[in-house]
Amino acid sequence: MIFSKKSEKVLPSITLEVTSGAKQMKKDGADTIILGAGEPDFNTPENIRNIAIKAINDGLTKYTPASGIDELKLAVAKKFKRDNDLIYSNSQIIISTGAKQCLWNVFETILNPGDEVIIPKPYWVSYPELIRLVDGVPVFAFGDEENDFKYTRPILEDVISSKTKAILINTPNNPTGAVYGKDELAMIADFARTHDLMIISDEIYEKFNYENENEKYTSIANISSDSYNRTIIIQGVSKTYSMTGWRIGYAVGNEKIISLMASIQSHTTSNPNSIAQYAAVEALNGDQTSVKIMVNEFKNRRDYIVERINDTNILSCKKPKGAFYIMINISKMLGKVIDGHTINNSIDFSNILLEKVKVAVIPGDGFGVSNYVRISYATSMDNIKEGVKRIINFVKDYE
Ligand code: PMP
Ligand code: GLU
């Protein structure tokens, strides 16, 4: 049997793979601490769960319009007006099975074979794979750790080519936690205008911003009418409302692009889950207290980890401004020999950490950087304390 070239090239999502492997270890009785996938440990708030139960009992369990129910599009429009001062009409909104499907739909819609998309490096694992799956070419813009790995104009000018079709931004960022300021967004908007690029703005971590909690989130679509017109915003309820398993994401932007995305979706998955759509209406329209509680808790966790890791002489990390990840620099561990095995990269480090002290982290190689591992602090403080203690005890001997 000859398989498609594409399927043979695609790698499984390392974030999901490491996490499910570690969950299985735990199930089999190992005392494993999972600092892997970015999945909030909070339960989905009760008001949202109740609406889902009601939707089932009311028989709202049939096909819906492929691009989502009007009630949810209305709630999305309201959210953008309330939170972002951005106006979108019904025809500029699509509801999908997670933000991941929104990204897939948009790449399918805008890319022809060989078209390039600039993505930040370190990158979230799925960006390059999604782009390659539709025969596009991911082009990596590698930021400096000193500058929180963010895009700068020289870095972007260095990677632009006649084939560049779009630039992707993700703020707050997975895996670095970096948050772009208004000036930086204005620079990217100007870069996109100068080179006539589309902007794909993944804003899924919007609410996880720990430095300017009372300030409104600035989307690149806020910068100018030009940036508004060339931006597709990717969003979802997975993180904000602890609804990772419900699979609801949404995208907004240019009407023509959204309608093409909807046509693709109508042939691939049809509508996203009907019950989850009604629950998402409640998530966006209902009481937002749970979001504040979760974000405050995450901030405490971040501060705890950053302090402990930087207390070691062998590991280091920057204090991320947003999302719920920390990139730990493991450069000083590279080359060390443990039980006859040399640690050559982040995969070796992660494997030995799991084997020796049963802590699961995501190797930076999954994000394009070998001398880092990513930990997620979307897990309980007890888990974090134990996990960090084990990591520190493990590296102590090598200081
Ligand atoms: N974008 C980023 C940056 C992410 O980290 C994730 C992780 N889940 C997604 C998109 C996809 O989210 P979902 O499909 O759960 O909505
Ligand atoms: N986005 C999360 C992460 O990076 C969840 C897993 C995934 O979808 O990749 O851990």
From TrEMBL:
<dbReference type="GO" id="GO:0008483">
    <property type="term" value="F:transaminase activity"/>
</dbReference>
<dbReference type="Pfam" id="PF00155">
    <property type="entry name" value="Aminotran_1_2"/>
</dbReference>
<dbReference type="InterPro" id="IPR015421">
    <property type="entry name" value="PyrdxlP-dep_Trfase_major"/>
</dbReference>
<keyword id="KW-0663">Pyridoxal phosphate</keyword>
<dbReference type="InterPro" id="IPR015422">
    <property type="entry name" value="PyrdxlP-dep_Trfase_small"/>
</dbReference>
<dbReference type="InterPro" id="IPR004839">
    <property type="entry name" value="Aminotransferase_I/II_large"/>
</dbReference>
<dbReference type="InterPro" id="IPR004838">
    <property type="entry name" value="NHTrfase_class1_PyrdxlP-BS"/>
</dbReference>
<comment type="similarity">
    <text>Belongs to the class-I pyridoxal-phosphate-dependent aminotransferase family.</text>
</comment>
<feature type="domain" description="Aminotransferase class I/classII large">
    <location>
        <begin position="31"/>
        <end position="391"/>
    </location>
</feature>
<dbReference type="GO" id="GO:0030170">
    <property type="term" value="F:pyridoxal phosphate binding"/>
</dbReference>
<dbReference type="GO" id="GO:0006520">
    <property type="term" value="P:amino acid metabolic process"/>
</dbReference>
<keyword id="KW-0032">Aminotransferase</keyword>
<protein>
    <recommendedName>
        <fullName>Aminotransferase</fullName>
        <ecNumber>2.6.1.-</ecNumber>
    </recommendedName>
</protein>
<dbReference type="InterPro" id="IPR050596">
    <property type="entry name" value="AspAT/PAT-like"/>
</dbReference>
<keyword id="KW-0808">Transferase</keyword>
<dbReference type="InterPro" id="IPR015424">
    <property type="entry name" value="PyrdxlP-dep_Trfase"/>
</dbReference>
